[in-house]
Automatic annotation (TrEMBL):
Domain MD-2-related lipid-recognition: 21-141
Domain of life per record: Eukaryota
Organism from which the protein derives: Bicyclus anynana (Squinting bush brown butterfly)
Protein name (database record): Uncharacterized protein LOC112044269
Gene that specifies this protein: LOC112044269
Keywords assigned by UniProt, alphabetized: Signal
SMART domains assigned: ML
Taxonomy of the source species: Eukaryota, Metazoa, Ecdysozoa, Arthropoda, Hexapoda
Length: 190
């Protein structure tokens, strides 16, 4: 019972872990980027046509009275502007405070006219009222459709359940994970 609790706790913590991101010139101290459905593993899978909540946490060194977002997904030399709502100052008390950590969540709409099963970068830039880039980060992403999203989710749940069974022989677990690796490769084929 305790072992199951630990595995469940690990899954919850992993789901809330910041994604691996590259800071591309933030004036503020960017601390974490959380994209729903993504964890520490790269790439972050984004589903075409999906609306995905994205949360950032940062510490501001100076006051900004207004924040505007510019979000682009770059795949195969195509730069697709991505609609994002709401603007940060609609959810965060502006001006941005300098004496506390600030956090805001926006919802990104993934364009449907992008290539499927391709890797690229999500670039998220936030500018203040004088046009200064206060936040900028990139995350490696890979596009998928809703069927692939469904299969990946259920495969991850199954893997976690199998791993939590202490009575299974290691050879069974190895064979299972090798077969799921093959299945995941089949999922990403066109």
């Amino acid at each position: 019972m305790f072992f199951t609790f630990l595995v469940f706790h690990f899954v919850i913590v992993a789901a809330r872990a910041s994604v691996v991101f590259e800071d591309c010139g933030s004036a503020y101290d960017l601390q974490t980027v959380n994209i729903q459905g993504c964890g520490m593993r790269m790439p972050c899978f984004v589903t075409l046509g999906d609306r995905i909540p994205v949360n950032v946490r940062f510490h501001a060194d100076f006051v900004s009275r207004q924040l505007d977002q510019d979000v682009i997904i770059q795949i195969n030399f195509v730069h697709a502007r991505t609609p994002v709502t709401p603007e940060p100052c609609e959810t965060v008390m502006c001006p941005v405070r300098t004496d506390a950590e600030t956090s805001f969540t926006s919802v990104m709409s993934v364009p449907t006219n992008m290539a499927l099963n391709q890797r690229g970068y999500l670039q998220w830039r936030v500018y203040n009222e004088v046009g200064q880039r206060v936040l900028c980060y990139q995350v490696m992403v890979q596009t998928q459709n809703f069927v692939q999203k469904f299969l990946r989710h259920h495969l991850a749940v199954l893997e976690a359940k199998i791993e939590a069974l202490p009575f299974l022989r290691p050879s069974f677990k190895t064979n299972f994970f090798n077969s799921t690796l093959l299945l995941s490769k089949l999922i990403t084929k066109k």
